[in-house]
Write a structure and sequence with these properties.
By secondary structure, the chain is an alpha/beta fold. It has one domain (2-184): TIM Barrel (Alpha-Beta Barrel). The chain is 41% helix and 20% strand. The protein is built from eight helices and eight strands, in the order H-E-H-E-H-E-H-E-H-E-H-E-H-E-H-E. The protein has helices at 2-9, 19-24, 43-52, 71-81, 91-99, 113-126, 140-149, 163-172; strands at 12-16, 32-35, 56-60, 85-88, 103-109, 130-134, 154-157, 176-179. It has an eight-stranded parallel β-barrel, surrounded by five helices. Strand 1 (12-16), helix 2 (19-24) and strand 2 form a beta-alpha-beta unit. The chain is globular, with a radius of gyration of 15 Å. The two termini are 23 Å apart. The model has no long low-confidence stretch (mean pLDDT 96). One of its GO terms (biological process) is regulation of DNA-templated transcription. This is Glycerol uptake operon antiterminator regulatory protein. Keywords: Glycerol metabolism, RNA-binding, Transcription, Transcription regulation. InterPro entries: Aldolase_TIM (IPR013785), GlpP (IPR006699).
Length: 191
């Protein structure tokens, strides 16, 4: 699995929130990025720019403007936008993405212990290739519980503001982190 091997080599994923982030991405080490902005008319060019840098682009479908909430959206994204994969909180979109041959990352929000069990169910239902857990500062037992039902890579994202937060996410069991703070993009190892 290319994603798993890639995050083993460089476990930090750049979460791009703006055109400025995209402009400077070339100067940083992450081989993977999550596009958390953009719209239907510009995303193809944005993905191409990321790929021209030798990096992988994963489109957050929920945050991209101009898309629907159906299978046709994923067919269009695969054919026209051509990202390396997609990220979504919507289980049915993750399932559709997988059925269309796209690498799919299920984003889960974990505000309480009940949502951990719900997350296990959603991962099974969507058949996601990887999962992003938000916030990334959840305790170790959350990662352990999610791994009980699946061995897919787990990315910690959200509320990781400093190097100590990143270190804690890795200690707690994250395989990778997604961070928007550029100062964290060049962290190379899990500690």
């Amino acid at each position: 699995m290319e994603f798993k091997r890639g995050i083993e080599r460089h476990p930090v994923i750049a979460a791009l929130r703006s055109e400025e982030d995209l402009e400077v991405l070339r100067d940083y080490k992450p081989g993977f990025c999550f596009l958390l902005f953009g719209e239907i008319n510009t995303l193809r060019q944005m993905v191409k720019r990321v790929k021209d840098m030798g990096k992988k682009a994963y489109l957050h479908v929920d945050l991209a403007q101009g898309f629907g909430n159906d299978r046709a959206t994923l067919q269009y994204i695969k054919r026209e936008i051509q990202p390396d994969g997609v990220v979504s909180t919507r289980t049915h979109l993750i399932r559709f993405a997988r059925e269309e041959g796209l690498f799919a990352i299920q984003r889960l929000f974990i505000p309480d212990s009940m949502s951990v069990k719900t997350g296990q169910h959603l991962i099974k239902q969507s058949r996601a290739d990887a999962v992003e857990v938000m916030p990334g500062v959840v305790p170790a037992w959350v990662f352990q519980t999610l791994r009980e039902k699946s061995d897919i890579p787990i990315v910690a994202g959200g509320l990781l503001r400093g190097e100590d937060d990143v270190k804690a996410a890795f200690r707690n069991g994250a395989d990778a982190v997604s961070v928007s703070k550029r100062e964290l993009w060049n962290i190379e190892e899990k500690y």
